[in-house]
Design goal:
The protein is of the alpha/beta class and about 325 residues long. Helices cover about 30% and strands about 15% of the residues. Helix 1 packs across helix 10 and helix 4 crosses helix 6.
């Protein structure tokens, strides 16, 4: 039974904490939306009644036996929580061993970001192909200028390699396939995947990227994937290729990528994630013309809180029923 569920104030980065609170607690109502989704605060009657409140300080965590959060803080370990839900799919910031020792279950939000991230990556590719990022930059200076005749291209017939074919990768692949792109992918098990013409294993990654105009990185950060895209993999990409990273900063060797970009060995990059976030003001990535920087926002959507509410509501029901949690990590 989850008697008191806390919504940590750190989710403010993605949506108002009160929006999620209201979606999960019918007593508050749905003040942030139009009430037309499954996450609109309506009780199903079988998830159990529980108090839902917004919390911030360690003192406010007292009495909570479950927590929905963006950030991780050491105070969570001593708060007496039985369950923590991460509003992101990535959970590399959470200490698995310590949580397991304290019998704290950890769940994540995998499975809900495929459309948002897929459309973001499609936007990156369209911007580079149609030179939209350059027009935006020149427009700020009032500069009316056509690109070189051979710069713009269309996505149809271009090649894309998707590194990681989970929910995010499949969302990217589906949208690229709809644009008549040639899609290959990389995953641990080389079994067929919809919208992907050929699947490679991580050991074959240099072959996978060798003919790709775009390489989209969408794999979780683990000990196996840290530094997966390094100097050798970047060197294997064509000179006119673009790297797109919507996974975690640690998956790509940033120093190696920067070196390739600064000497024009690659055409450009779109980077949503970095080893240090927020990206420091003095980072060279800000100054490169053919680099698009977004603030770890590829998955954001106005319905984000509703999707989180659906997962949390289902696991709250499962806690009452004594059933295994969905999206359980620890």
């Amino acid at each position: 039974m989850v008697s008191t569920l806390g919504i940590h104030e750190s989710v403010e980065l993605l949506f108002p904490p009160t929006a999620l609170r209201d979606a999960l607690d019918p007593a508050h109502g749905d003040s942030a939306g139009d009430g037309d989704s499954a996450g609109d605060g309506e009780s199903t009657g079988d998830e159990g009644s529980s108090e839902v409140r917004v919390v911030g300080s360690s003192a406010e965590l007292e009495g909570c036996d479950a927590l929905v959060t963006f950030a991780y803080e050491e105070a969570f370990l001593s708060a007496g929580l039985s369950w923590i839900h991460s509003v992101q799919a990535g959970v590399d910031r959470f200490p698995f061993d310590e949580l397991e020792e304290r019998d704290v279950r950890l769940t994540n939000s995998t499975g809900i970001h495929g459309d948002a991230v897929g459309e973001t990556v499609l936007g990156y590719m369209t911007s580079f192909a149609r030179r939209l990022h350059r027009y935006r930059d020149r427009g700020r200076d009032g500069e009316w200028k056509h690109p070189e005749w051979d710069e713009p291209f269309t996505l149809s017939g271009e090649s894309l390699c998707v590194v990681g074919l989970g929910t995010l990768g499949r969302g990217i692949a589906a949208r690229a396939d709809a644009c008549a792109m040639d899609v290959v992918g990389v995953r641990r098990t080389p079994t067929p995947v919809d919208h992907v013409g050929e699947v490679y294993t991580p050991e074959e990654i240099e072959r996978a990227v060798a003919d790709a105009r775009f390489v989209a990185v969408a794999t979780p950060l683990t000990e196996e994937t840290r530094g997966l895209i390094g100097a050798d993999e970047l060197a294997a990409m064509p000179d006119d290729a673009y790297l797109l990273n919507v996974s975690r900063g640690g998956v790509v060797d940033e120093a190696a990528l920067l070196a390739e970009l600064e000497r024009d060995r690659l055409a450009g990059a779109a980077l949503d994630v970095f080893e240090t976030e927020p990206l420091p003001e003095d980072s060279p990535f800000w100054e490169l013309d053919d680099v698009i920087v977004t603030p770890h926002a590829a998955a954001t959507t106005r319905d984000y809180y509703r999707r989180i509410a659906d997962i949390v509501r289902e696991n709250r029901r499962r806690a009452v029923a004594g059933e295994p949690f969905v999206n359980r990590v620890v």
